[in-house]
Amino acid sequence: MSALLSVTDAHVAYGKVEAVRSVSLEVGANEIVTIVGANGAGKTTLLSAIMGILPLKGRVAFAGQDLARLDIEDRVAMGLGLVPEHRELFVTMNVEDNLELGAFRIERSRAKASMERVYTLFPRLKERRKQLAGTLSGGEQQMLAMGRALMGEPKLLMLDEPSLGLAPIIVADIFRIVTELRAAGVSVLLVEQNAQAALKIADQAYVMELGEFVLSGKASDIAANERVAASYLGFQHEGESVI
Amino acid sequence: MNTTIMLFLVQDGITNGAIYALLGLALVLVFAVTRVILIPQGEFVTYGALTYASLAAGQMPGTAKLALALGIGAFGFDLFVARKALHARLIVRSLITNVVLPAIVLALTLYFAAQKPPVAVCIALSLVIVAMIGLYLYRIAFQPLAHTSVLVLLIASVGVHLALQGLGLLFFGAEGQRGPTVLSGAFTAGALRFTGQSITVYAITIAFIVGLWLFFGLTLYGKALRATAVNRLGARLAGIRTTLSGQIAFLLASVIGALSGILIVPITTLYYDSGFLIGLKGFVAAIIGGLVSYPLTAVAALVVGIVEAFSSFYASNYKEVIVFMLLIPVLLLRSLAAPAVEEEKD
């Protein structure tokens, strides 16, 4: 089986500190794959390196092509999208401009249709389309960041902590949309601290600890794993109630 | 104080202020997009002005040759960077924009310089030559450093300024030049006399500001430039190349600089090194605008122009000192208003 994204023996280092060690993973077509793990496990670092923001040692292939020589913009043009943890929106520009720029590499005629699709997925964004991105609520900003990434017509969307700091009702909404994306043919690589919610919608899952994958397999199996339940799901429960 | 004198000074100040506004806007644009503090902005002014004046006098300006030389350099950089994955399309595209284009312009310049071309041709050629110099300079001096700190970029910027100033002396000599007016004639309104040239300055400044406003507000590329300025990583994740944004910014800055030069060279005698001081006044306006605000920069530029006009009347020896002293209260206020310097994010 040839996977859409395949990462083989990846190492990512900040100077001498290796934040990600010997990690391999695959994301197939029409699949939601999640990486769960505690804060600081190296999940964000791994996504950034796959996107080309950080240098990575090892092999990353997307749609059968080695990404080693390609920069961020090339990867975007190939259909790899990232919604970063900090969203990186154009805060002084309105919602519609943010979306329009998401389709910078897409033909204008197709961009129009893309925008309609994004508005259908996120009706809230349509209501706020003339509002400045910086004045949106946290949940709306997350929707806008996802919408902007979708405007680039990605084959694989990588989401970094989409639920971080959001109200439970909005989190549920965002996870529902992630499953809708899969139905629409977009694969998703989801990095989450909220392991419970992520494992519920994912097909495959990896558990990351201190820069390494310690467990991988079907999401349902991982969710049933005692060790995961003890260290993440239980913990996550308490964590949620604190927030 | 005499009202007529005051009106004269205000008028003079606004004419100069309009030029400073254009330069200040270009500085803000370049800094916002590339983080380069564009010290050579002043050289774009003198190059534009003196290329125009030389052409109008029937002389061959050395800047056309410089454009070709820089273009060949830029082509070399392109090839070197892509050496491991060279393909024909990339080579041809780079060859056309970096070598063929300046070669054609050089040929046109050689042809026209011999026969004292009309003003419109001189303007067009000067603008194109300086625009190309700006574009290739970005490729050679700033694009390879794009990921470095503001300080490194500033040092590169100072280096480019010194190099261009030296080349300016080589191309145009130490004597000052004046160019023909774009629009001759004049009319009087009350006590004030408006020359065609000052009207041209106002009209072009306003047209450029409106044009920039439309470009940034309505076009995809304009928005992409703003996006790069607001959030570099976000822009890259949307597929907007920072190098493309940098090229557009430098292209605009060099065209604005050259245009400003062409507008003032009929009014003031310009020397190869006059640009620095002119650019610096645009810089004062840009600093007052915090290097981010376009409207504030434009207003500040008018203030700079008017203060300069009044100080050159009342204390002409101290005219530059007074203008640059404007910075002190502004910097003081700004440092009080924002005690913490925001960490640069990449």
TrEMBL record, chain A:
Family: Belongs to the ABC transporter superfamily.
Task of the protein: Involved in beta-(1-->2)glucan export. Transmembrane domains (TMD) form a pore in the inner membrane and the ATP-binding domain (NBD) is responsible for energy generation.
The ABC transporter domain, residue ranges: 5-235
Superkingdom as given in the UniProt entry: Bacteria
Record keywords: Amino-acid transport, ATP-binding, Nucleotide-binding, Transport
Protein name as annotated: ABC transporter ATP-binding protein
SMART domains on file: AAA (SM00382)
Pfam families, A to Z: ABC_tran
Coiled-coil intervals: none
Gene Ontology molecular function: any one: ATP binding
Organism: Bradyrhizobium diversitatis
Automatic annotation (TrEMBL), chain B:
Transmembrane helix among keywords: yes
Transmembrane parts of this sequence: 17-37, 66-83, 90-112, 118-138, 150-174, 199-222, 248-271, 283-309, 321-341
UniProt keyword terms in alphabetical order: Amino-acid transport, Cell membrane, Membrane, Transmembrane, Transmembrane helix, Transport
Protein location: Cell membrane
Membrane topology reported for the UniProt record: Multi-pass membrane protein
Pfam families for the chain: BPD_transp_2
Family classification: Belongs to the binding-protein-dependent transport system permease family. LivHM subfamily.
Annotated protein name in UniProt: Branched-chain amino acid ABC transporter permease
Upper taxonomic lineage: Bacteria, Pseudomonadati, Pseudomonadota, Alphaproteobacteria, Hyphomicrobiales
